[in-house]
Amino acid sequence: MTVDEAPASGTLEEPQVEAMFDRIAGVYDRLNSVMTAGLHHKWRRRAADLAAVGPGARVLDVATGTGDLAIELAPRVKPDGEVVGCDFSEQMLAIARKKAPYIAFEQANALALPYEDATFEAATVGFGARNFSDLDQGLREMTRVLIPGGRVVILEMTTPTKPPLSTFYSAWFDRVVPLLGKAAGDANAYSYLPNSVKRWPGPHELAARMDAVGLTKIRYVLTAGGIIAMHVGEKPA
Q: Which partner for 233 in 147, 180, 215, 219 could form a disulfide, CB atoms 3.0-4.6 Å apart?
């Protein structure tokens, strides 16, 4: 079975996910805005706030995609800081570089980050951690590259459990989102999205897994009626 023939699911192999994001790069930003009514920019700003970085800091945005979270972070570290955005999809990175040529966007695997230990004051990931083929390894890598006291910030969708929001959420992601993907020319990719969210750990479980890799002072914030979760944890000093 080829990558393009693989069935959409929430558990695609890493090469399949990379190929999928290469395919949808051209429509990714537009569909993000449609699916979230433009609110994803607000959520990224809040995630950038949780990173708590200031002038001179170095920040790594993992699974940066087309770079929107890295772009939110960049003004916070001026004038002497640096934001590095990394992703395994070269097509997504090409768009990110056009949007923000002042940011270093680099191709890298989140499970084997090509950065030395204790390099960054914060490591963030926005709507990308659920694509890690090994979440715990991704968390370990993000923690490894932090300086002591640095922060990991995870912005991700989660599944609401109480109606009426849970009913609306199910209808939107199971029916409407795949139709949007079909209209954009890649129904499989946008069927993968709701499936990947369904298998994503709930807020308590994610906090526990962050604790298991050695992060401390873990907390999370739910917003958008419980559809969006932002987790933050610190590397021990």
A: 215
